[in-house]
Write a structure and sequence with these properties.
The chain is an alpha/beta fold. Helices cover about 40% and strands about 15% of the residues. It folds into 2 domains: about 10-250, Aspartate Aminotransferase, domain 2; about 250-375, Aspartate Aminotransferase, domain 1, CATH 3.90.1150. The strands form 4 sheets. It has a 7-stranded mixed β-sheet with strand order 1-9-8-5-4-2-3, sandwiched between helices. β10 (about 220-225) and β11 (about 225-230) form a beta hairpin. The longest helix has 22 residues, at about 10-30.
């Protein structure tokens, strides 16, 4: 059996090797490394895929979040609400801009931001909500959008883990994640569902004015060379990464279908286990693209399971072991432990098993047999 990888980037590359190598070589030979035609091509193709007016590529997913918030004209002290259970980049950019992060608890089934908790903390300084579509599953966007509209708040989607997922509204309409709020952001970190071979990110919006502002911000605030109209940063997707992403975008739906199939196989193998809760999916099959396959270990030794899997050469991950409200960089007297009961519980339960586009049934059988053997 082939060695089990947490993310098999080499196996994925082998299937598109000729296309990628040719495109990268053409990019290098052109010497148009910054803002070359491949960046424009990828941008246009991603706009078409997402059915959105504006895609602005940038250097990475964290920059995408920061620039999105910068474009809204928020002032120091303005509050931005986001989830306590997520990667630190989401709260990092809020703090870097002098804004005030307001962390709330998450839903125990989906791991996504809890709408009821959002409603409780909205105040006069609240200006925006950042829902994170965690592990590949769409947050409860219809309720979030309604709440934002009622309170005149911006919605900035952190779509770093869920590109390609669909959200179905109660009236049957479907839209891609990242296109639901005022602004969407994503990361093209190599392990993502749509991953580059280095860093990369993008910002999405249907708002012409915001798109214009963002285009300047990613390029030192310039619309005309050496004329700086807004305060900006240097955050550009390079041509080589754009060329690779343009090829991989053609396979994104196939990649996501492979992940869904692997998740279904996992679910079948681990169904009704007394110590395990398999990932909950809210909505139809397209609402979860399984960036991670994350179990909850109930009444069991999660950390012991990690050691057991590693002993059997099966990689796994704990995403995320420490809630943001307990991280040294983001502690605040405003954060009360009783407000984060779900997050505090699940950080000691979650474990993510290997998940990628090349995962074979035989590997899943071995992984799940090893998991079940731990519990006896």
């Amino acid at each position: 059996m082939k060695k089990i990888e947490m993310v098999d980037l080499k196996g994925q590359y082998e299937n598109i090797k000729e296309q990628v190598n040719q495109s990268v070589l053409e990019t290098i030979e052109s010497t148009m490394f910054i803002n070359g035609p491949w960046v424009k091509s990828f941008k246009e193709h991603l706009e078409k895929y997402l059915e959105i007016k504006h895609v602005i590529p940038c250097a990475n997913g964290t920059d995408a979040l920061q620039i999105a918030l910068m474009s809204l004209g928020l002032k120091p002290g303005d509050e931005v609400i986001t989830a306590d259970f997520t990667f630190a980049a989401t709260v990092e950019v809020i703090s870097l801009l002098g804004l005030t992060p307001v962390l709330v608890d998450v839903d125990p089934e989906t791991f996504n931001i809890d709408v009821t908790s959002i409603e409780k903390v909205i105040g006069p300084k609240t200006k925006a909500i950042i829902p994170v579509h965690l592990f590949g599953q769409v947050a409860d966007m219809e309720q979030i959008l309604a709440l934002a509209k009622k309170n005149n708040l911006y919605v900035v989607e952190d779509n770093a883990q869920s590109i390609g997922a669909d959200y179905t509204f109660s009236d049957g309409r479907k839209k891609k994640t990242g296109t639901l709020g005022h602004i969407g952001t994503t990361s093209f970190f190599p392990s993502k569902n749509l991953g580059a071979y280095g860093d990369g990110g993008a910002i999405f919006t249907n708002d012409d004015k915001l798109a214009h502002t963002i285009r300047g911000m990613v390029n030192h605030g310039m619309y005309i060379r050496y004329q700086h109209d807004v305060v900006g940063v240097n955050s550009r997707l390079d041509s080589i990464q754009a060329a690779i992403l343009d090829i991989k975008l053609n396979y994104l739906d196939i990649y996501n279908e492979s992940r869904k199939a692997a998740a279904l196989k996992y679910n079948q193998c681990l169904a009704n286990h007394p110590h395990l809760i398999t990932p909950f999916r809210k909505g139809d099959r397209d609402s979860h693209v399984y960036h991670q396959y994350t179990l909850k270990v109930i009444d069991g030794d999660r950390d012991g399971l990690v050691k057991h899997l590693n002993k059997n050469n099966i990689p796994c991950g704990i995403y995320y072991p420490i809630p943001l409200h307990l991280q040294k960089a983001y502690t605040s007297e405003n954060f009360k432990s009783d407000d984060f009961k779900v997050t505090t519980e699940i950080v000691n339960q979650v474990i993510s098993l290997p998940m990628h586009t090349e995962l074979a049934d035989r590997q899943i059988d071995f992984i799940t047999d090893t998991v079940k053997a731990f519990f006896g």
